């Protein structure tokens, strides 16, 4: 596929999630119960088919209505948890997706073959189809922590497969150019920085209404990034080190809302890895000691 019709600016997705949390807290009070209700809401959203999601004219209204329904059910039966993975009403299938071969490029499929069965399963479920961590763990038969380690191992293997290391200074220069193109909404320049066969992955973890499948091709990837990073008040694109390489760190209302990393080969971006999952960004939002000059690479 590769279309971007369901892409939404990141700031709007974050505001939407915060709205749902506010609704759940208003009904259930503070604490993890409200967060669990919102997680269940997004689980139901991802349980819909593509056609069903496309038929919803206002996702925010749909999500709010479902959050309210879930909260009411918890209030009327507080001792009973909502159906979880594998239970009635889960809505997330465990059958292999027949469209996988069409959604993932031949190059990526070849790389996936080199992974262990567990790594491949976790990577596809978590990074490609954005299933919630608990659901992935139940399907694979591992703990969420073990699945997180398997997913990271798979990402490292895929990034290393067949790619010549790009010198740090070149990587930094290209990522800076990508950021500048996004800030200026310069689609032509952004496309010129991408490989013709570029692939973008969006890890929402089922906690935010991110794209559920990878986006393919320089034109589609560029449009998706420009839409996701569309200028909004108090949304800033910084440059900072992530896993030893320059990445784009998006801050919204002074909190890290996304970390976008890039794989670069022959001076073109081949893969975009956008982490939007709030759980995976907690470490970025913890208070830390005053900067000592390490890690940050500054911003333009």
TrEMBL record:
InterPro entries: ECF_Sigma-70_Domain, NTF2-like_dom_sf, RNA_pol_sigma_r3/r4-like, WH-like_DNA-bd_sf. It comes from Streptomyces violaceolatus. Signal peptide: none annotated. SUPFAM superfamilies: NTF2-like (SSF54427), Sigma3 and sigma4 domains of RNA polymerase sigma factors (SSF88659). This is RNA polymerase sigma factor. Residues 77-96 are annotated as: Disordered. It comes from the Bacteria.
């Amino acid at each position: 596929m590769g279309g971007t019709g369901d892409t939404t600016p990141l700031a709007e997705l974050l505001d939407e999630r915060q709205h749902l949390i506010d609704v759940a807290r208003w009904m259930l009070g503070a604490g993890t119960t409200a967060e669990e209700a919102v997680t269940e809401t997004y689980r139901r959203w991802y349980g819909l088919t593509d056609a069903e999601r496309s038929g919803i004219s206002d996702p925010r209204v749909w999500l709010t209505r479902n959050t309210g329904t879930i909260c009411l059910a918890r209030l009327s039966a507080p001792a009973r948890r909502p159906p979880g993975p594998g239970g009635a009403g889960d809505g997330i299938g465990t059958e292999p997706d027949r469209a996988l071969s069409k959604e993932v490029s031949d190059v990526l499929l070849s790389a996936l073959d080199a992974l262990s069965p567990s790594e491949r399963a976790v990577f596809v479920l978590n990074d490609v189809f954005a299933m919630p961590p608990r659901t992935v763990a139940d399907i694979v038969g591992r703990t969420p922590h073990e699945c997180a380690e398997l997913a990271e191992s798979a990402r490292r293997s895929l990034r290393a497969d067949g790619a010549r290391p790009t010198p740090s200074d070149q990587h930094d220069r290209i990522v800076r150019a990508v950021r500048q193109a996004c800030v200026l909404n310069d689609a032509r320049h952004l496309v010129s920085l991408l490989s013709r066969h570029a692939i973008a992955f969006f890890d929402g973890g089922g906690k935010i209404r991110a794209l559920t499948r990878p986006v393919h091709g320089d034109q589609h990837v560029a449009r998706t990034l420009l839409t996701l990073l569309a200028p909004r008040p108090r949304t800033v694109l910084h440059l900072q080190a992530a896993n030893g390489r320059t990445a784009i760190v998006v801050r919204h209302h002074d909190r890290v809302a996304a970390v976008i990393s890039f794989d670069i080969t022959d001076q073109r971006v081949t893969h975009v890895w956008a982490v939007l999952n709030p759980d995976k960004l907690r470490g970025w939002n913890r208070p830390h000691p005053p900067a000592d000059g390490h890690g940050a690479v500054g911003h333009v």
